[in-house]
Amino acid sequence: MTTNQGVKVSEDEHSLKAGSRGPTLMEDFHFREKMTHFDHERIPERVVHARGFGAHGFFQPYESMAEYTRAGFLQDPNVKTPVFVRFSTVAGSKGSADSVRDARGFAVKFYTEEGNYDLVGNNIPVFFIQDAIKFPDLVHSFKPEPHNEMPQASTAHDTFWDFAANNQESAHMIMWTMSDRAVPRSYRMMEGFGVHTFRFVNEQGRARFVKFHWKPVLGVHSLVFEEALTLAGKDPDFHRRDLWEAIERGDYPEYELGVQMIDEEEEFNFDFDILDPTKIWPEEVVPVKKIGKMTLNRNQDNVFAETEQVAFHPGNVVPGIDFSNDPLLQGRLFSYTDTQLIRLGGPNFHELPINRPVCPFHNNQYDGYNRMTINKGQVAYHKNSLQNNDPRPATEEEGGYVHYQEKVEGRKIRARSDSFKDHFSQAKLFWNSMTEPEKMHMIGAFQFELGKVKSKDVRQQVVNMFSHVDTYLAEQIAKGVGVTMPENAEESKVTASSPALSQENTAKWPQTRKVAILAADGVRAEEVMEVMKAFKSEGVLADVVSTHQGMLKSETNEHVEAHQTFLTADSVHYDAVFVPGGQGSIDQLKTEREAIDFLRQAHKHFKPIGFVNEGAELAQSAGLNDLELEPRKVCEQEGVVCITNAEELTTFNKAFIQAIGQHRFWNRKV
Ligand code: HDE
Q1: Which of 59, 253, 534, 613 is most solvent-facing, going by the fewest CB within 10 Å?
Q2: Coil, strand, or helix at residue 235?
Q3: Which of 306, 329, 352 is the last residue of a domain?
Q4: Which residues constitute the domain of residue 604?
Q5: Average pLDDT over every residue of 167-190
Q6: What is the largest CA-CA distance in the chain?
Q7: Which of 90, 6, 105, 102 is nearest to 50 (CA)?
Q8: Do 225 and 281 reside in the same domain of the chain?
Q9: Is residue 305 included in any domain, yes or no?
Q10: Which atom number of ligand 1 is nearest to the Cα of residue 48?
Q11: For ligand 1, atom 23: residue with the closest CA
Q12: What CA–CA distance (Å, rounded) separates 327 from 344?
């Protein structure tokens, strides 16, 4: 151990004192240095997206995209580009819970050979507002209210909904934030979207409009809201833990990069404005072309140095990727550097290890707080003769970034295009695309969020607003929050739907799902072992949860290890529950309230449940049978897999693992 000056430290337990019971001495430079550094350990948290977590990985294209873009990292399927991803919530402070209802940030930094490219997206493809000048207002409305700083990490309060009702361009995004998308099961099971329209520009200078998508290989899956609320208390780190552990295990999260492209000539061929960030390009109208895959395969070494100090900026682009005139994007191009200046204390944050490009970089920018580069030489200006005009700009052929020469003309005016004025058609498209259970979740979300709003007038305004989207939805919200439907309410006439918007149409896999095995002394060991073996071969994870940790004694005196207890684990930590047989085990579990609650909750949250032999008796004690007296009635319910004869365990394993892959059984009556 040394001081920051490199002097070896001989003692780090006691400050220097005048006598062992005397006062501390000013000359204790080691104490002063240690304490001063500690006093300055915090930097301002991000004004939005404060709570986040990152991981390293790489991106590899499937094929050359030369026809569409000259971006170097999209040319050669053999080239792997390193990436750093930071996932985040938006509204909460740095110490808030992971599982709250919110949009999630999905920001990717590609360290390309041509410089850093940042795709700073969200898990929702649209945004609340259409013009960046309204961003401070939006954020002030959803952050805790200024007079009492409540509530934390939640839009369930008056000011947010007051903003929504008085800025109705937010309608579409609110539909998404009230949907299951806002309570993801895992960062590994979320889509990502660039949101804005960007441009791809190829070698010949031809441009196309482009939107970016990340599609998780594991599919898109969510928590139920009650689970998210419980997790906020039981495990505020739920999402970061899930990501960290998956990478540690070698279950590397993968996301395919997709692009939607529109030719410049087709810009006006749609019934929405393609520059409007409150609109999607429905995938059924403009297909998503999958062009590559990102794999996250390395956890960060130090969260502060990486997650906290990483500085994203939508303006970090490389040749071949350019901007559009989306007024939200244009404003973001200013905001990100500006915020880093205050957050990271000066203009040299690009020199921090996590932000440094992997290619060489040089220019005439000098000095400033925390300058790390030691620039050499006499000259710091362009053009010069003293240094042979070095560094000099690169030509386009040499890879110099040349902005796309879009022709622009117009009067200076503070206004929004009329083509941005339809706020309800795509909100309705989203509603039409949901399955019944998804719609029910949304109604519940609206009733919860708006139910927390104290102003009846604001609640009424919101119902009036959503009556322009869908009558049934608005009626249900009105009913839940004690206001009335407006007279002459007129819902959107849109009847189309976009199946790609429903999570029910997503990929479904059992891999990396977590199962709780409920057991106690007397459990039938071979059932546990055999099922666990089958889980392992399918990449399903399992913990034995019991009344105590350590070894359980099985029916036949073998040992089964309990990894968790009913105190350390909760059903919300798991995707499924398995109850093996063994009369002794079941008889004991029947008397344990926590075991009963565990099972009841998993059932209520629509999770797959497996019972083997006597295991099903626990369902009876948990009341899963709708007060039916027949214990095996539960086995007829959706997503409940049972077996009576231990001989048939292979059949059980197959059916149960398939059910685990289904994620949830929304049509189960609970
Ligand atoms: Fe951001 N946003 N944003 N944003 N944003 C920030 O930059 C801003 C918007 C997004 O993990 C800030 O470094 C404005 C849309 C992510 O570090 C700030 C507007 C989308 C992250 C900022 C938007 C995003 C941020 C705060 C409206 C989805 C976290 C701290 C014009 C496409 C990045 C920071 C990370 C962070 C400004 C709207 C995504 C203040 C002005 C739309 C993922 O600069």
Answers
A1: 534
A2: coil
A3: 329
A4: 508-661
A5: 98
A6: 95
A7: 90
A8: yes
A9: yes
A10: 26
A11: 332
A12: 27
Total number of domains constituting the chain: 3
- For 441, the token pair is 């979740």
Strand ranges in 273-360 using DSSP code E only, listed in sequence order: 289-299, 321-323
> Reduced to 3 DSSP states, what percent helix, strand and coil does the chain have, rounded to the nearest 5?
35, 15, 50
Separation CA 309–CA 301 (nearest Å): 13
Q: Are residues 587 and 655 in the same domain?
A: yes
How far apart are alpha carbons 106 and 257 in whole angstroms?
13
Q: Which residues lie with the beta carbon below 6 Å from any ligand 1 atom?
A: 46-49, 52, 86, 88, 105, 107, 120-122, 127, 132, 135, 195, 310, 312, 328, 331-332, 335-336, 339
The answer to the question of residue 256 being in a domain is: yes
Within this chain, do residues 492 and 540 fall inside the same structural domain, yes or no? Answer: no
Do 167 and 278 have their domain in common? yes
> With 60 as the cut, is the pLDDT of residue 488 above it?
yes
The last residue of a domain, from among 329, 346, 372 = 329
Which runs of consecutive H residues, i.e. helices, occur in 315-466? 327-343, 425-433, 436-451, 456-466
Query: How many alpha carbons lie under 13 Å from residue 528 in its C-beta half-sphere?
Result: 28
CATH code for the domain of 653 = 3.40.50.880
49 carries an active-site annotation: yes
Tell me the average pLDDT of the chain: 96
> Which ligand 1 atom sits nearest the alpha carbon of residue 339?
44
Active site residue 140: no
The enclosing domain of 473 has a CATH number of 1.20.1370.20
Indicate if the alpha-carbon torsion angle 47, 53, 57, 60 is positive or negative: negative
* Per-residue pLDDT tens digits for 115-166: 999 999 999 999 999 999 999 999 999 999 999 999 999 999 999 999 999 9
Q: Atom 18 (ligand 1): residue with closest C-alpha?
A: 336
Degrees (nearest 5) of the Cα angle 662, 51, 314?
A: 95
Query: Which residues does residue 611 pair with via DSSP β-bridges, in sequence order?
Result: 579, 642
Whether this model's pTM surpasses 0.85: yes
Q: Indicate whether 563 and 440 sit together in one domain.
A: no
User: What whole-number percentage of the chain has pLDDT above 70?
Assistant: 99
pLDDT category at 628 given cuts 50, 70, 90 is low
pLDDT at 627 (0 to 100): 55
Give the C-alpha separation, 32 to 25, whole Å. Answer: 10
Catalytically annotated residue among 30, 56, 116, 122:
122
Note whether residue 250 is domain-resident.
yes
Nearest to 85 by CA among 115, 114, 62, 105: 105
